[in-house]
Design goal:
Helix 1 crosses helix 2. By secondary structure, this protein is an alpha+beta fold. It is built from nine helices and four strands. The chain is elongated, with a radius of gyration of 21 Å. The longest helix is centred in the middle third of the chain and has 23 residues. The chain has two domains: 145 residues, Gyrase A, domain 2 (2-Layer Sandwich); 41 residues, no CATH class. Bound molecules: flavin-adenine dinucleotide. Flavin-adenine dinucleotide binds next to helix 7.
Length: 221
């Protein structure tokens, strides 16, 4: 049900980033660089922690069918930009709900879950019929309700989001979302996103005794 589409992105993201970086070290403003040199330079910059240049490449995603549980976690990333479907202007009476796999795997739990959803949808409609505005009736809908949003972020912020949200300790739905986002950008900017993933990509897990014990591997070039 979750669907992620890359709507647009900086053309030649790695060339753009590399030219920005070269500007710092050139007497004349550089306007061209080969793909190979750009990739080499980006790898060096990331190793050195000169990550601000990654801000010159931006990506915009259309994200469909995630729960408000997950969208709430996502929008905590303050350096990305968001536009989210409004529950004031869009009726939620026919809304879909995201059912977690743990619930789907347990028929008794699924029955309970679906019954509660149906009851909440019915109550929502009854509130609307009583003249309660959508912006107030929505208060009784559960957090699993599906939402759509558009997210724009630069490559530096995306690496940060991937660092936190691809970790096996992150929640399954936001992890699935981060994985889909990474799949869409990794071939467009391979030198930037070969480092994408939780801190264990670089060898060090910060989860201590909560570590999953399954370290990520750095992406191959
Ligand atoms: C596994 C997990 C569990 C979590 N559990 C909880 C929880 O229980 N409760 C809760 O409230 N949140 C929780 N969070 C959310 C977390 O606290 C952050 O709000 C969220 O991950 C966004 O991270 P960020 O602030 O680093 O990133 P962004 O907002 O994306 O910012 C990127 C980076 O920019 C810099 N930056 C941004 N804004 C500022 C600023 N104002 N001042 C200084 N530097 C700034 C920081 O270096 C920051 O890391 C959890 C996150 C994860 C991954």
């Amino acid at each position: 049900m979750m669907k992620v589409t890359l709507l647009s992105y900086t053309p030649d993201p790695e060339i753009t980033v590399a030219l920005a970086a070269r500007t710092c070290y050139s007497s004349k403003l550089p306007l061209a660089i080969s793909k190979e040199r750009a990739e080499h330079l980006i790898r060096e910059l990331i190793e050195r922690g000169h990550e601000s240049v990654l801000e010159h490449a931006s990506f915009t995603f259309a994200i469909e069918g995630i729960s408000r549980v997950t969208s709430h976690q996502l929008v905590r990333h303050r350096l990305a930009s968001y536009s989210q479907q409004s529950q004031r202007y869009v009726s939620v009476k026919e809304a879909d709900f995201i059912i977690p796999p743990s619930v789907v795997e347990n028929s008794e739990a699924q029955e309970l879950f679906c019954k509660a959803i149906e009851e909440s949808k019915k109550a929502y409609q009854e509130l609307i019929n009583l003249g309660i505005p959508q912006e107030d009736a929505r208060y009784m809908m559960a957090q699993g309700i599906a939402t759509n949003l558009v997210l724009s972020a630069n490559a530096r912020e995306l690496l940060h989001i991937f660092r936190l949200r691809l970790c096996n300790r992150a929640q399954w739905e936001i992890r699935e979302l981060a994985q889909k986002m990474l799949e869409l950008v990794k071939d467009l900017a391979p030198a930037i996103f070969e480092w994408a993933g939780p801190p264990c990509v670089e060898g060090e897990c910060r989860e201590g005794e909560n570590s999953c014990g399954k370290p990520w591997k750095k992406r191959e070039k």
